[in-house]
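Hi R.,

As promised on Friday, here is the backbone we talked about, encoded as structure tokens. Could you run it through your design pipeline when you get a chance and send me back a sequence?
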């Protein structure tokens, strides 16, 4: 039985993915539990595939899956989640902005009954035990973005876009089987559907450090993500998503925020 699957979407990440993979494997090897790391290569045009393939020869828990066409981050994560076999499934970015040791914080939330645990830079910035290093303009625009998102249908979540999210296998299989957003807006679709399908979401403060080479352009991509959310709302309102096979939790537990 695979205890944990880590899904890493990768597009032109040759210059920074190796330290991330090494850090993950170092932490997970010490745990002495079966795991897998799935790198989803979204038709990279650099040497990402060769770099990860060489690393996987030394570390058999790492696999690289190359998509036939470039689909975007959301499509890559969806493909990885559908391929994963772990009891728990983590979405992690290739840049290593979140130290992998922070996984323990998310796992604690699932141990306490959450279906999804998501890292939060917003909560971390107000927690003296956590450190967040971010450029001021990205923080300001990010706060504005999340305020709009809360008004558009994802209440009680302060940081939807942090690339460090842990799901139970049941939640992952259900949600990613119906999701359809291929771009950066997939996080919004994930959380919007999770709240409406009765899943308990725990938001957890984590250490985070901004990394060079981000693919996200906050202003441009922020507008696209908001457009994606509006489309998700319309699709949901008109019954475009298959119904959940069974309620995950009583409706009064649709979303919780953990400040621990």
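Update: got your reply. Pasting your designed sequence below so it's all in one thread:
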């Amino acid at each position: 039985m695979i205890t944990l699957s880590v899904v890493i979407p990768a597009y032109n990440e040759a210059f920074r993915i190796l330290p991330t993979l090494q850090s993950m494997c170092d932490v997970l090897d010490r745990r002495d539990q079966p795991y897998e790391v799935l790198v989803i290569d979204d038709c990279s045009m650099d040497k990402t595939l060769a770099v990860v393939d060489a690393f996987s020869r030394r570390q058999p828990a790492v696999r690289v899956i190359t998509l036939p066409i470039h689909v975007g981050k959301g499509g890559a994560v969806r493909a990885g989640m559908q391929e994963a076999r772990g009891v728990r499934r983590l979405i992690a970015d290739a840049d290593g902005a979140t130290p992998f040791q922070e996984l323990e914080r998310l796992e604690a939330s699932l141990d306490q009954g959450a279906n999804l645990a998501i890292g939060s830079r917003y909560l971390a910035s107000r927690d003296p035990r956590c450190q967040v290093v971010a450029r001021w303009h990205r923080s300001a625009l990010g706060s504005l973005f999340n305020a709009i998102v809360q008004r558009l249908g994802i209440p009680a979540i302060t940081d939807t876009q942090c690339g460090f999210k842990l799901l139970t296998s049941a939640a992952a299989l259900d949600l990613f089987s119906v999701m359809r957003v291929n771009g950066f807006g997939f996080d919004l679709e994930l959380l919007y559907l999770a709240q409406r399908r009765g899943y308990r979401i725990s938001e957890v403060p984590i250490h985070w450090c901004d990394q060079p080479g981000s693919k996200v352009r906050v202003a441009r991509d922020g507008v696209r993500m908001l457009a994606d959310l509006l489309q998700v709302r319309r699709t949901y309102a008109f019954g475009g998503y298959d119904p959940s096979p069974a309620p995950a939790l009583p409706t009064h537990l649709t979303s919780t925020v953990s400040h621990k």
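One thing I noticed while checking it: The beta strands are 4-10, 35-41, 62-66, 88-92, 116-120, 132-133, 164-168, 201-205, 208-209.

Thanks again,
M.
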